[in-house]
Sequence to fold (437 residues):
Amino acid sequence: MGFQISEIGPCKKRADFNLSKDDVQEGFDQVYGEICETISFPGFRKGKVPRNLVAKKYGKDILGEVKEKLISKTFYAMVEDEKMDIISQPSFDEKGKALTEGEEFAYNVSFEIRPDFELPTYKKISLTKELKTVGEENIEETKGNLLRSHASLQDSEDGAIEAEDYPTLNLDVKDESGEVIHHNHGFMCNPASNRLDIFSIDDLSKELKGKKKGDTLEISHDVPEDFKANEELAGKKVTLSVEVETVRKLQEPEFNEEFLSNLGFNSEEEFSDTLKQMLENEFEKNAREGLKKQIYNYLDEKIETDLPDDTVKRHAEYLVNSKVMELMRTGIPATEAEAKKEEFQSDAESEARREIKVGFALGSIADKEKVFVTEREISQRVVQLAQQRQTSPEKLREELEENHEISALRSQIKEEKTIDLIIKKAEVAETQVEGEG
Fold:
């Protein structure tokens, strides 16, 4: 076997392989030997089937298996000999030449490798930890948020619409001739969202403010040319005729013994103590995120290296799609969320480069410091995730394994442990900061 390696891009290589007749014949002999030992054939005992009969019946299948074994064996032998750290799925090209028993065979493969860079000093780096003390105002604010989260919608016969209300509206969309070209009746609207059915309306709260049950209003609107929600309306000047069907207001529950009991607390003191502990944990988590951000910035600034373009591109696409999915989880319609892709893509590549560079650095530190993840740690994380997703750990573990996400979970835990190690070895100055939670 002979091969030649060449550079074809940043952190990207191509290996050209030339397999001799003997290499090819060895591959065929191995596969035929394995098959002849296992198949049955009329008139012959297992293991005694003539090779020519096997070739006649299974030739095409055998050819594919020989090719796969030859390529895999020679490629990964090269990877081991050259001590390459491959980070992408190899892309094989057989140069259009068919594999034939007893003849030479050539192929090439392109792949990306981990960049080689000088790791900066990561021990005793200077970090600043921002400390926040839980005050009465934090507890009261959180209590208010909790009450709002348990509020229920109540019809208000005489109430006027405010930004935080949820009126039910009837909408008729008319073109310049007055013909109704779109309608939606009986839908719930939140004025603060600036969304009226499929339309984005600036200052919708101001338009609806003060309107009561039975009131009507008209809004002139220029539909954008790239309107994805309904392409038939794109670019048209329309009038949005709105009728208020009902006004619904959020009514918060009273903060009393019954409310606390429903939450599982025996007293207001127990509730306040629990809330304080939760806020302290949240402030500590935020402080750690601040330290993590400083470490990311430090490694990003100190390391100069080429990065694999294909890996960066894939990660940038992942970041964009993640942001689109996050919008959809908040209730933004899929068409509108998808329309944001171009906006997200403008910063995605630089963000991806930073994350990948720092990821490589943290991986090198983990290797140097012998940071590893145990099966127990993975199981504990699966239990935590299962609780958050309200499913069983066994079911979640099965899903993660089916989707090949266990390795990603392992990498996440490993990075967290590496960050903790850097913080532990750093010179951390603490500073008290004021402000809301």
Remarks:
- The chain has a mean pLDDT of 91.
- The first strand starts at residue 2 and ends at 9.
- The domain at 126-135+268-432 is CATH 1.10.3120.10 (Trigger factor, domain 2).
